Predict the structure.
Amino acid sequence: MDSLYKELQQFGDVSLRKFLAKFTTFKIGGPADRYVEVTDTKKFTDLLNFLSGRGVDYFLLGGGSNVLLPDNGLRGVVIRVKTNKMTVDGNMIMAEAGVSFGAVVTKAVQQSLTGLEWATGLPGTVGGAVRGNAGAVGGDIAHSVSKIKIWQDSEIVELTPDDCAFGYRDSMFKRSTTVVLAAWFTLSPGNPRESLAVMQEILKKRAGHYPSYPSAGSFFKNIPLKDWPHPTSELPAAFVEAGRVPAGWITEQAGLKGLAVGGAMVSREHGNFLINHKDATQADVLALVEEIKAKVYNTSGVELEEEVQIVK
């Protein structure tokens, strides 16, 4: 047992050669050389300081959605962020990075607050949602969060949304070593019954689209209307109004539902879900992705871009 393993024990629960597939919604991923679960933000930042000071590579894992991990696992240290404090102060909710984003949505309704109904049913943690500027049905993190606490080069800093370079399913956190520690959501007084009605309607609409097999969620980014290479008059009015053409609709128009490579397949329920149909590997998924991209480009001239984080 190496010395690093022993030193890591001061920060959380440590394991060697921990298989990561069970911690991801895709159920794909090999073993981590060293795996640490942290539940305390102070120990989390101490661990980040320790690893960066030692020059040890690390990878952060939250709820395990929106990510595709390699079949041969990850070297260095995998940190599973399970910090779980959440507080309410008036119309503001603070949640640490490891809190399930769904728990924040539920807490808002319980506190008669409105503004997060759009996130009903979204998987993942607060940290992951902020990093990827998670969004759905017209809402997103960029327009819901009021403050973010981060770790950056051994310092703790608070940012405003304007500091985060939020874009469509994007933020500065995807292009830096900055780590989200917590986020604050300033909401409005609401009516729980009205909120629940909206949430039930969202779940109802999604019910027929979400596959029963493991997946990483929506795999490709929707296409901005300005990048659509054909007359917009040919598109459904809802797409024009939203300003984006859904990637799932594009793949469906190309006849790709049910397309499979190895154990990976395009869901028959929704064209933007790639599913782990039968013991899929990352290699299966990547081969399927390339086939989808090629066929979509050949049929519509559109270049699809992954929304899911692919770790190689």
Remarks:
- The domain at 211-310 is CATH 3.90.78.10 (Uridine Diphospho-n-acetylenolpyruvylglucosamine Reductase; domain 1).
- The chain has a mean pLDDT of 96.
- The longest helix spans residues 282-300.
